[in-house]
TrEMBL record, chain A:
Residues 159-414 form the Rab-GAP TBC domain. Residues 1-44, 85-132 are annotated as: Disordered. May act as a GTPase-activating protein for Rab family protein(s). It comes from the Eukaryota. InterPro entries: Rab-GAP-TBC_dom, Rab-GAP_TBC_sf. Keywords: GTPase activation, Phosphoprotein. Residues 1-10, 25-34 have a biased composition (Basic and acidic residues). One of its GO terms (molecular function) is GTPase activator activity. Residues 104-114 have a biased composition (Polar residues). Pfam families: RabGAP-TBC (PF00566). This is Rab-GAP TBC domain-containing protein.
Automatic annotation (TrEMBL), chain B:
This is Ras-related protein Rab-11A. It is a lipid-anchor. The keyword RNA-binding does not apply. GO terms for molecular function: GTP binding; GTPase activity. Keywords: GTP-binding, Lipoprotein, Membrane, Nucleotide-binding, Prenylation.
């Protein structure tokens, strides 16, 4: 079966097809040749680090490789380079964090509990207690940071433990890499990206579709109306059409995966956050009537949701390609991780024939959006977006923390049915950002414990291959 | 563990398959919880529920796996066919395409499920009379030709939902009890090796069931 997947997926990738709104692969190849000096991926990465802001919307699109033959060796070494440079950055980041945490903790105006520097210095209990009192303080710090030319690293550190609703929109745009850090270029970039999105819509959405695209559209049209049946906002035709366009354009630009059920849920947090920028502070989005927004406002909400979704999904696109290998791998890694950190729970699940795929597939495919109330998902995504490129891995630790959270209840279940019914319907309805803060802190702890043992996730990979 | 719910004579694993949006999840929720949602969220991966019924004084516990309809999920969901002794292959009577795709689903079962799996073709949404796109007779004769049982249901108004599950579970029970294969009650999952010896004679067994349910 394994080899069958490989065959199918490689067959599929070779399927050369022009991709909507994307420069042809040939042109890409030429561009690369122009740079004979670059030898490593880091060089290449450094040389194009600003490309996102300038005029390219592509990140790591698998289908970009359609025409390019890449040997396994080259791909492997490139991947290693990325991992190494990544690891180095993370290491230096964390040492930086330590320094800055010392400094800030002694700072004059410092509220110890709310100033949590670097991606996640988990002090969950203290933070929860001070949640209320630090709200204004936090908002002020965000505002200062956002109004001056922003340091992304600092913004990530601050956002990791939650972004105030008032500045969430702009913060998410910055964290997504959609909005450039450089203040002077922001308006210009926004204007151009929004225009780009709408020309894509015009060019590809409102035209006769071929069979593949008809299938995509059909699936999207089935899923969008039933996304959030209990929230009136999502029953509005205008909203549904906005989602349909976002998903369709995303799909045709990512033919290696196309639309996969569940991706629709991943648009929601962006959409809500950007929509809320046009609502009054006390106006609940659930009942907002989108047609009351101006057309311009709706166009902005939609385009920005699209671009931020695109960026967000880039690091996890292998979750959605054929056979969903990214998810299958992470399920194995989750199992391996739980086995190590909580053998009792792991054995309990195994004794009752519960397989991790049975419950964690949805967690990974929908990034927990199905397991959490929307307000919690949004808070969780503050952290995800602050994790930036590390988010794909971090998500695994979040799932582990989420599972461990329910340990006591799971241990009380003594048969397969009881376990699975609980795992499918975990009672998170009353959750608030406090629970999310606890969960991401726990995830961070797991990540740190295993950061010194980077091979712990590999054992399954190697046996897998 | 010794609660009433856990006592059963037979445990049968049944899968729900068919195109996206035909109402698989609602058939499941109607049968197991007597619930229906006009707009229920799409199923991601697989979802699971159980219900026990009585046949000939025996308690049969049905472990029902609801699967995602989108083709992309096949690689994942195929794993869930393992050990399944029954499959409800669902289409929407108001959407002809979902009926046309039944053949593809049958191929999929042939490729991934036990060869003796009992299959029932289910035309759901029978309440949508004014929108009917698949004739009952057409589906019925297709089922006959392919050795499947057949029934039309409405998860919305409950028509035939219990009957559909009751029939397929009875059919499985007859086959299993004929062969005198008993699943040990302590097992939570039917293991494939216990299922393999079951042989189905489609001409006799499925005919019997068809007569009960397709009118």
């Amino acid at each position: 079966m394994e080899s069958e997947h490989h065959e199918k997926s490689s067959f599929w990738k070779k399927n050369v097809k022009s991709v909507a709104g994307r420069p042809s692969p040939k042109r890409d190849a030429k561009d690369v040749k122009k740079n004979p000096g670059s030898t490593s991926f880091q060089d290449f990465q450094a040389s194009v680090s600003d490309a996102w802001d300038l005029d390219d919307d592509e990140f790591c699109v698998i289908s970009g490789l359609e025409n390019t033959k890449i040997s396994k060796k080259v791909a492997h070494s490139a991947a290693l380079n990325v991992l190494n440079s990544h690891r180095n950055t993370t290491e230096s980041d964390s040492s930086l964090d330590k320094k800055s945490s010392k400094k800030t903790n002694n700072g004059p105006e410092t509220n110890k509990t709310s100033r949590i520097p670097g991606p996640g210095r988990p002090k969950p209990i203290l933070r929860i207690n001070s949640d209320q009192e630090s709200v204004e303080n936090r908002l002020e710090r965000f505002q200062i940071l956002l109004e001056n030319s922003t340091d992304l690293h600092e913004l990530c550190g601050l956002s990791w433990s939650g972004v105030p609703a008032k500045v969430r929109g702009i913060t998410w745009r910055l964290l997504s890499g959609y909005l450039p850090m450089n203040m002077e270029r922001r308006n210009q970039v926004l204007e151009r990206k929004r225009k780009d999105y709408w020309s894509l819509v015009e060019k590809y959405y409102y035209v006769e579709h071929d069979e593949t695209n008809r299938d995509i559209q059909h699936q999207i049209n089935i899923d969008v109306p039933r996304m959030n049946p209990s929230i009136p906002l999502f029953q509005q035709k205008t909203v549904q059409v906005m989602f349909e366009r976002i998903l369709f354009i995303w799909s045709i630009r990512h033919p290696a995966s196309g639309y996969v059920q569940g991706i629709n849920d991943l648009v929601t947090p962006f959409y809500i956050v950007f929509l809320q920028e046009y609502l009054k502070d006390d106006e609940p989005f659930e009942k907002c009537f989108v047609d009351q927004l101006s057309e311009e406002q709706r166009r902005i909400v939609e385009a920005d949701s699209f671009w931020c979704l695109s960026k967000f999904l880039d690091s996890i696109q292998d979750n959605y390609v054929f056979a969903q290998i990214g998810i299958q791998k992470k399920v194995l890694q989750l199992e391996e991780l739980i086995k190590r950190v909580d053998e009792t729970l792991h054995k309990h699940l195994k004794e009752h024939n519960v397989s991790y795929l049975q419950f964690s597939f949805r967690w990974l495919n929908n990034l927990l959006t199905r397991e959490l109330p929307l307000r919690c998902t949004i808070r969780l995504w503050d952290t995800y977006l602050a994790e930036n490129d590390c988010f794909a891995t971090f998500q695994l630790y979040v799932c582990a923390a989420f599972l461990l959270y329910w340990k006591d209840q799971l241990m009380q279940q003594h048969d397969f049915q009881g376990l699975l019914m609980l795992l499918q319907n975990l009672p998170t309805q009353a959750w608030t950002s406090s629970e999310i803060s606890l969960m991401v802190a726990e995830a961070y702890k797991l990540k740190v414990i295993f950061a010194d043992a980077p091979n712990h996730l590999l054992s399954n990979n190697s046996s897998d291959n | 563990m010794s609660s009433k719910d856990d006592e059963y004579d037979y445990l049968f694993k049944v899968v729900l398959i068919g195109d996206s949006g035909v109402g698989k999840s609602n058939l499941l929720s109607r049968f197991t919880r007597n619930e229906f949602n006009l707009e229920s969220k799409s199923t991601i991966g697989v979802e699971f529920a159980t219900r026990s019924i009585q046949v000939d004084g025996k308690t049969i516990k049905a472990q029902i796996w609801d699967t995602a309809g989108q083709e992309r999920y096949r690689a994942i969901t195929a794993a869930y066919y393992r050990g399944a002794v029954g499959a409800l292959l669902v289409y929407d009577i108001a959407k002809h395409l979902t009926y046309e795709n039944v053949e593809r689903w049958l191929r999929e079962l042939r490729d991934h499920a036990d060869q003796n799996i009992v299959i029932m073709l289910v035309g759901n949404k029978s309440d949508l009379r004014h929108l009917r796109a698949v004739l009952t007779e057409e589906a019925k004769s297709f089922a006959e030709r392919n050795g499947l049982s057949f029934i039309e249901t409405s998860a919305l108004d409950s028509t035939n939902v219990d009957m559909a599950f009751q029939n397929i579970l009875t059919e499985i029970y007859r086959i299993v009890s004929q062969k005198q294969i008993r699943d040990p009650p302590e097992g939570d999952v039917i293991r494939p090796e216990r299922v393999e010896p079951i042989n189905i004679q489609p001409s006799t067994t499925s005919d019997g069931v068809r007569k009960q349910c397709c009118q």
